[in-house]
Amino acid sequence: MKKAINLSVNGVSHTDEVEPRMLLVHYLRDVLDLTGTHVGCETSLCGACTVMLDGQAVKSCTVFAVQADGSQITTIEGFAKNGELHPVQEGFWEKHGLQCGYCTPGMIVTAAQLLDRNAAPSREEICHGLEGNLCRCTGYQHIIEAVQYAAKKAGQS
Amino acid sequence: MTDNYVGRRVKRTEDPRLIKGLAHYVDDISLPGTLHVAFVRSYLAHAKINSVDTGAAESAPGVVAIYTGKDVAEKVGPVPCAGALPNLKVPDHRVLATKKVYFVGHPVAAVVATDRYTARDAADLIVVDYEELPVVTDVEQAAAGGPVIHDAFSDNIAYRLTSGEGDIDAAFSAADRTVKQRILHKRLAPIAMEPRGVLARYFPGEEELTLWSSTQIPHLMRTQVALMIGMPENKLRVITPEVGGGFGSKLNVYAEEALLGWISMQIGKPVKWIETRRENIQATIHGRGQVGDIEVAFKNDGTLTGLRYSVFADLGAYHQLLTPAIPTLTGLMLSGAYKIPAIQMNITACFTNKMATDAYRGAGRPEATYVVERGLDLVAAELGMDAAEVRRKNFPAPNEFPFHTATGLDYDSGDYEAALDKAQQIAGYAELREKQRKARDEGRLIGIGISTYVEICALGPSQAMPAGGWESATVRIEPTGKVTILTGTSPHGQGQETSFAQIAADELGININDVTVIHGDTAVVQYGIGTFGSRATAVGGTAVFVAIQKLKEKAHKIATHILQADASRVAFEGGKFSRQAAAASAAGTSEPVVPVGQAPAGALPDPDTEGKSSLTLQEIALEAHIAKNLPPDTEPGLSATYFFEPKNFTFPFGTHIAVVEIDRETGDINWLRYVAVDDCGRVINPMLVDGQVHGGIVQSIGQAMYEEVVYDEQGQLITGTLMDYAVPRASHIPHFELDRTETPSPVNPLGVKGVGEAGTIGATPAIVGAIVDALAPFGVRHLDMPIKPENVWRIINGH
Prior knowledge:
The complex is a heterodimer of chains A (about 160) and B (about 800).
Chain A: E1 3-9, E2 12-18, H1 24-31, E3 50-53, E4 56-59, E5 72-74, H2 87-94, H3 104-117, H4 123-129, H5 141-156
Parallel strand pairs in A: 1-5
Antiparallel strand pairs in A: 1-2, 3-4, 3-5
Chain B: H1 15-19, E1 35-41, E2 47-53, H2 55-58, E3 63-68, H3 69-72, E4 100-101, E5 107-113, H4 116-125, E6 127-132, H5 139-143, E7 157-163, H6 168-174, E8 177-188, E9 197-203, E10 208-213, H7 218-229, E11 236-239, H8 255-267, E12 271-274, H9 277-283, E13 287-298, E14 304-316, H10 326-332, E15 342-351, H11 365-383, H12 387-394, E16 403-404, E17 410-411, H13 416-427, H14 429-441, E18 445-454, E19 471-477, E20 483-487, H15 496-508, E21 515-518, H16 536-563, E22 571-573, E23 576-578, E24 614-616, H17 617-626, E25 639-644, E26 653-662, E27 669-679, H18 686-706, E28 736-740, H19 758-774, H20 789-797
Parallel strand pairs in B: 1-12, 10-11, 14-15, 20-21, 27-28
Antiparallel strand pairs in B: 1-5, 2-4, 2-6, 3-5, 7-15, 8-13, 9-10, 9-12, 13-14, 16-17, 18-26, 19-20, 19-25, 22-23, 23-24, 26-27
C-alpha cells in the first residue's frame, strides 16, 4: 500500500515510504519534523501551509506527498542561509509584519515568490500577490511594508 | 529610570523564532507514542440521540478507544460558565452529548487511534441514530416561545436584565425629537489562524497531568479543568506554547481540553487533538449575535438627553465561559463618548440551536459603540447637522474627568475633542466634505464616516470580574545578572515579551537582551489571569513595573550595606548603585560580572565588591545569591513578586474617519482614505500599538463588509469553511493613516490604557457611516452589516 518517494527538502535528500493519501504538509511536519509549515484550513484557502515546490509556491495541504516525488522543496526552515535571514524574513522582523506568527511562514514563502517574479512590485501588486494568504492579526499593512522593505533591500544588493 | 526603550519602536524579541519557522505551537510538539483524537460531531442542529453504534469503529485497525457521552457523563464535570447574573438559566453542558444534540458541531463521540488519519476514518464508521427535533435559530422566535431547547427549562430565555441610570421616561418625554433604529449584529467567527488544539500527557507514576493547550488563560483553565476531571490542581500543569491568535476565542474552557486530559489518564499515553477549520467554525465560540432597537432622545440643537437599547442576545445552545456576560458589557458602554443623562439597556438573552456566542475581540463593546455611533449619525441626519459636530457637542470636557456615565462607570481620563480635531485635520475634513459635494454634483458617490469611540479596557477591578481582575508578575535577577520576568498574562501575538522587557530594561538600566519574559506555564509562573480585554500591559505590565520597584528597594538595601553608606546617599542610575549620585554619571550598561566561559565549575565566583564606590545590579545580584555579606534580616536572593489590583478600568478613545467611493455600476465599495487617531494612554512601543490598531480595524472591515456566520432555518451552518466565511484579504484594505493623542491613565503608574480591541470597537461605525453617507442621496440612513456590493447595487438600482 505504501509508496516510496524520494525528494529534496531544503537541500537534503529524503527517501521514505508513505501512504498515497498522506498530504505533503503532514509529510513535512510529521515525518521530517519540519513544523514551521502550518495547517490553517485544510482547504487551500488560508495559505499557512505554503512551501516552494520546484520553484512554485504551493499550498502543501492540498498536495499529496507522492505528488512531490522527485521534486525540490523549500520550506520556511530553508530560507535563512548560513545564519543570514532571507530579505523577506528580515522585512517581516523590521516592519512588524507578524504578530502571532502562525500565517508568517506561508506569507514569507508567498512573498518571496512574488518578489522572484516582480522585483519592484507596486502596493496593488503586493496585495494581489498575497491574496491567497490570510492573516488575522496584522491587518496586512505591515506585511505590505515588509515586502516593500525586502524588495528595496534585494534591489540594493 | 532611563527611557532607552519605553516609547520607542523596538523590534520584537519574539520574531526570530517565528520568522524562521522554529517556534512551537501545540501541533508542533511531538511526544513518543502520542495517540490522536477525532470527534464525531452532530450534523443536525437539534435531535434526540437514539443510539451510537461504535462497533465497526472499535474493530478498525489502529483504534485504541472510543468514548461516547454515556461513557463520560458521570466522569467529567460540566463545561464551566462564569456568569453570575440573577436568575440565570445554566444548562447542564457535558463534554460529549448524552441524550440530545443541540447544535451542528456538538461533539457526540471521541475516537482515539494511532494516527490522525486512522482516527478520522474510524470516526466516520460510527453511526449515530438521531431523531430530529424542531429547531430554533432565530433569536426573536426563541424568545417568543419557539421550540424549547432545554428540557430543564420552560422557555428559551436564559435571562432578562434591565440596567442603566437616570429617568429614561422623563428623558424621552422631555426631548424635542427622537430617532429609533433596528440594528443587527450578525454572528462572527473569530478565526484565529491557529485553530484550537490540545496535547495531554498523564504521568501515572507521579499522578500528574500536563496539558498543552492553545489558550489565552492557562491558569484559569488549569483551575477549571482540575475541577472538571477531579484532579488536584497542583498536579495539573497547563502549558501554552506559541498560540496562533485568539481574539477571545481562546478565552474559554472547552469540552475538548478537559476530555483530552481525562482520556490521557484512562489510557496512560499522550493524546492529541488538533481542531480542523471546519470544527473551528462549528464549535469554537462565535462573537456578536445581537438584534436590537436603539432609541435616542435629543434636543433640536443636538444635545442628547436619553438613550435606550433593547436587545435580543443570541447566546447559542449552551453557555461557554463568559457567554451570558457579553451582552452586559454592551450595556456598560452605551454612553459612548457622550454626556447622556439617562440610559437604559434591556436584555433578553436566549438559547438557540447554534454554537455559543462569547468574547470575540471587543466582546460586547463593539455592539455598544456601533449602536451609539449609528444613533449619533441618525441624530445628525435628522437635524441636518454634520456628523462630527453632533459628536463634538456632546463630549464631556477634559476637566469633567473622572466622568460618571449613566451606565454606572467612571471614565478615567480623556480629551475626546483633541482626538477629533487631530483626525479631522489629518483627513482634511472640511476639504473632504467639499470634495464630496462636488462629486455628488457629478453623480459620484463618496461617503465620509466618522466614529468618536471610547472603550473600556484593562479588565479590570476584581469586584467587576468573574474570577479576579488583577495580574501578577515575578521579576528576578539571576546570579549572573540576567533578568527573568514571569508574567501571569498569556500573550499570543501582542508582543509582551518585548514590551515587558522594554519596561524592565529601562527600570533596571540594562540591555533589553538581558531580559527574558516567561509566560504560559502554570508550573513555572505564579498564578495569573491571562490575556484578554486589552489588559495585559495596563494590568500585567503594571505588575512587572511594581515588582521591579520592590526588587530595587531590596537591591538598594544590599548596596547601602556593602558600600557602607547612608541609605540616603546611595542612588541608582544607569544600572548602578553609587555612593554619591554625582559619582555615577558614567551611566551605561555595565559588563556582566561573570564573563561567559570563565565561571568556576560548580561554584559561583567570589564577588569582588570590597572598597568600591558603586555596584552594578549584577554585582548586587551575585551578592544576594552568595549571601555572605547581606544586611541583617535580609532574605537571600533577588526577586520580587507583585499582584496588581487595578482600582478602575481604563478608557481609551479616539476618532476614526473612513472615506469610500461606491462604484455605481457594480456596487463595489472602494477605499479612498482611512484615518485613525487613537489614544491608548502612554505608549510603550508605538510599532506594536500600530499593529494592534491595523489588525483591529481590518477585523472591523470584515464585520462591516464581508463576515457573517450564517445558519439556515434548519440550523445548518452555511458558512462552514473559509470559502464561505469571508475573512478580509490583503486586497481588501485601505492604506491606514494612523496618529495618536496621548492622555495618560491615572489608574496605573505606567499611564497605559490598552489598545488590543480599539480597532474592532472604533472602526465599524466609521466604515458603515461612510457607506451610508455615500448612499444618502438615495435616502439611506442605515444599513445592516455586512454591507455587500449586492446590497449597494440594489439600492442604487432600486431593486
